[in-house]
Amino acid sequence: MDQKRMKLRSGDRRAKRSGDRAEALQYLVEAVADRSGAQALVLVDDAGRIVAGMGSPSEVTGLAGTARDVARQRATLEQIEWATRGADVTARGLPTCEGPLYLAALGDRMKGVGDAVRAVRRILGETASS
Fold this sequence. Notes:
Layout: H1 3-9, H2 21-36, E1 40-45, E2 50-54, H3 57-71, H4 77-84, E3 89-94, E4 101-106, H5 113-126
Antiparallel strand pairs: 1-2, 1-4, 3-4
């Protein structure tokens, strides 16, 4: 039996893995976006710097600029409209020992955000010494 099938059978949905933190977070963002059907998905730090992301450059940039305010429920409708060109936005804060991160997505009915938040924490814990 190949490794991919073994992973799926054991309940592990990750098809790509990496011991490198940045690469692991990028793989996670891509997998969550694929599973949820999000147009774009970003993980940003408290300053709005992109940690990982997928989508068109304008979508990723728009999400990065609004993720923190949307997650904190401080974004105005005008800010969201300008940054996302009218698309639905979901964002969630993620406190970490290295400071807050924010996961934000463009798309209807974003699913799997809670699972993604737990996965980010796992990756940060596994790669703490990197």
